[in-house]
C-alpha cells in the first residue's frame, strides 16, 4: 500500500477536528500541487509540499481545549466562523470573537467568556503557535524532510508580516508555506461561498495575506470549470490526490511507517483534551499486554496495538465543551458523545491497511449483554480484540485524571469493573487484566512511549487474517 493512500484517508479525521467540510484537506492538496507546478518547484520540493498538504492540520487538536475554554463554545464552530475573518481587520475580528463567546448560554456566561478573552495576552498567536508547532513536530516524527515540517510550522505567516507564529514576511516565509496558506484559504471560501467569493477574497488579501504571484496564478484558473468540477467531486477526490503524488516511485506504507502513523494520530487524538493525555497509548499498551498474555502471536498483538492507538479517533469530532465538561453530561451531550465509536469506524474503514482492526477498534464501548453503544452489539458479535479493548479502555479511564474526578488506584478501579464481569467484560480476559494490573505489568513503557513490536516482513503482512470477518450490516452511518 502507498503511504499517500493511508494519509489521504486519515485526513478526514483532521477535517473533522478542525471544523472543516469533508475533503477539505484533499482539495487543498490538489490546489497546492497545481500551484507548486506553476511555480516550477523541483521534484523534491513538490514531494515535500504534497505531504505537507496532507498533514497541515495534524496539529489542529492541540488548540481545541484552549479555544473551548476561552470562548465557552463548541471549538469546531468557533474555528469555522473565525476562518472567514480577515484578522488584519481588528474590528471585525473582535466582533466575530465576541459573537462566538458563550454561544447558547446565559448572558452572564457570555460576559464571563468575553472578559476571559479580553484578558488573554495574545490568544490568536497562542492558538496558532500551538497548532503549527505540533503539526510540524508530527511531520518530523513521521520522517518527512525539513521542508515539509517547515511548511506546516509557518503556514499561518502572512506576506505583510502580520501573521503567526513568528511574524515572517515576504520571501522570508518558506514558499511551501505560502502555497499552503493560499491553497487552504481559497478552498475554505470556495467550498462555503463559491469561486467568485473565493477569488474576490484572494484579490483583497493579495500582498497582505498572500504572495501576489500565487494569487495572480490562481486568477488564471477562474474559467477552468472542468478542473474546479473535478476537485468538487467528493467521491473521486481521493483518487485525484493519489494520481498527483510526485516521484516515479511512490512511498510505501511499510509496517514501520504504519506504526509511526498510528502513534502520530494517537498523539493527535490525545492532544484534543488535557484529560486524555496518553489515554490512547495507555489503552494500546494495556490491550497489547493482555493479548500477549492470552498467547496470541506478535502479528495479532500488533493489530491490537494499532487498534488501541486509534480506537478514539472518532473523538476528534466531539466538542471540547463536552469532552472537558466538569459535571454530568445532559442527555443531548451524552448522545453526542456516543457517536464517537461510529466515527472511528467511518475513519478507519477508509484505510485499507487498517481494515483488519477498524471494526474491533470501534466496538470498545459495546458490552457482552448488548447494552453498550453505539450499536448495542451483544457477545456473539464481539471478537476477542473488541473485548480486550473494552477492558483496557475502561481501566485506563478509571485510573486517569478526569474533569469530574481524580484518578482511582488500580484496586479501586478493578473492584468497580468486577461488578460488570459477565455483563460488560469477558470473565477470562478480566482475570488476566486483573493479574497484570496488580503486578504492575499491564503496559510496557519505554522512554515515554509504548515499545513498538518488531517489524513484520511483507509476506507475513499479506497472510495476516482479519480480526473480524465482516462488519455487521447495520454499522454504516451517515
Short description:
The protein is an all-alpha fold and 478 residues long. The chain is built from 25 helices and two strands.
Given the structure, what is the number of helices? 25
Q: What's the CATH class of the largest domain, please?
A: Mainly Alpha
Helical residue percent? Answer: 55-70%
- The mean pLDDT is 87
Structural class: mainly alpha
Return residue spans where pLDDT drops below 50 for at least 5 consecutive residues.
444-478
Series of H and E elements? HHHHHHHHHHHHHHHHHHHHHHHHEEH
Spatial shape: globular
Query: Largest sheet, described in full?
Result: 2 strands, antiparallel
CATH architecture of the largest domain: Orthogonal Bundle
CATH superfamily of the largest domain: Hypothetical protein af1432
Give the CA-CA distance, first to last residue. 27 Å
Our estimate of the beta-strand percent is under 5%
**Strand order of the biggest β-sheet:** 1-2
The domain tally reads: 2
Number of strands: 2
Describe the structure in your own words.
The chain is mostly helical and 478 residues long. It folds into 2 domains: 1-253, Orthogonal Bundle (Hypothetical protein af1432), CATH 1.10.3210; 255-463, Hypothetical protein af1432. The chain contains 25 helices and 2 strands. It has helices at residues 3-17, 24-38, 43-55, 64-71, 75-82, 90-99, 107-119, 123-141, 146-153, 175-193, 195-205, 212-219, 225-232, 237-243, 255-270, 279-293, 298-310, 320-323, 331-337, 340-348, 355-362, 384-399, 410-418, 427-438, 458-463; strands spanning 445-446, 449-450. A two-stranded antiparallel ribbon has the order 1-2. The longest helix has 19 residues, at 123-141. The chain is globular, with a radius of gyration of 23 Å.
